[in-house]
Design goal:
- The chain is of the alpha/beta class.
- The chain has helices at about 25, 30-40, 60-75, 85-95, 115-130, 140-150, 155-170, 170-180, 205-215, 235-250, and strands at about 1-5, 15, 40-45, 75-85, 100-110, 195-200, 220-225.
- A 7-stranded mixed β-sheet has the order 1-3-2-4-5-6-7, with helices on both faces.
Length: about 260
């Protein structure tokens, strides 16, 4: 595990938790400078995605490591945390376990998929080989890159950075991350005193995800954006600016 603290060290603390098969440098690279101007950022790279030879163990082991870091370095309290996609599973667990406290848990258009072990194994057998095959050869890499550019409206530079993630990390880490995320369950109607759950809802994902947000958290603050999953991180200023504005509003709310 690697943690980098940067930005406005006099500002509110905001932890950045990247998504599937990603490090924070790639996941938040397009917005890191603007977030750094206002917030004391705590940027996290999980085991297996931190440049070391370690293998990602499982979601709950990593949750405990994040909790221990917050307890040791920040007296058990941060102002906020934002999870991109799978990173939102960590945000949810940090809130519901109550070992540490955060005022604002920000969920970046997550799917919050949950399943039993058999279904998780079946899904992993289908999805993980797909993820690890995106860069199998140059033809496959270029085809996958063009798909990302079309779907997310990524520019060439960001598409290239994103594609690199699929080739630089150990497939065992990718498998463990994807599989154990499905087994990391949230309770219904989570309601922690003085903590507010905020959701960046990408409406092009579909309304079933909106229902999940309302199922798992009590009275969540949901902001709807006309975009694809996490497009604000890869699709340019049109998508990034309004979401960054919403994040500022979240972090200023009194809880």
């Amino acid at each position: 595990m690697k943690y980098v603290e940067m930005g406005n060290l006099n500002g509110k603390t905001l932890m950045l938790l990247p998504g599937t098969c990603c490090d924070w440098e790639t996941n938040f690279g397009t917005v890191i400078d603007r977030l750094s101007e206002k917030y004391h950022l705590i940027c996290v790279n999980y085991d297996g995605f931190d440049g070391s030879d370690d293998i990602f163990p499982d979601m709950m082991t990593v949750v405990e490591k994040i909790e221990n870091y917050i307890i040791e370095k920040h007296s058990g309290r941060i102002d906020g945390a934002i999870g991109s996609s799978l990173g939102s599973s960590f945000v949810g667990q940090l809130i519901q376990r109550e070992r540490i406290h955060m005022d604002h848990g920000i969920f970046g258009s997550p799917d919050l998929d949950q399943s039993g072990k058999i279904a998780a194994k079946l899904q992993s057998k289908l999805v993980v080989p797909l993820l690890t095959s995106f860069t199998k050869n140059e033809k496959k890499r270029n085809k996958s890159k063009e798909m990302l550019k079309k779907f997310f409206l990524m520019d060439e530079e960001n598409a290239e950075k994103f594609m690199t993630c699929f080739s630089k990390f150990n497939p065992e880490s990718i498998k463990n991350e994807y599989y154990t995320d499905l087994l990391t369950h949230l309770s219904n109607d989570i309601n922690v005193e003085h903590t507010r759950a905020h959701f960046i809802y990408a409406n092009k994902m579909g309304k079933k995800y909106l229902k999940r947000y309302k199922k798992y958290f009590h009275n969540p603050d949901i902001r709807e954006f006309n975009m694809q999953h996490e497009q604000w991180l890869f699709g340019g200023e049109e998508f990034a600016v309004p979401v960054l504005k919403a994040i500022d509003e979240f972090m200023e709310m009194v809880v």
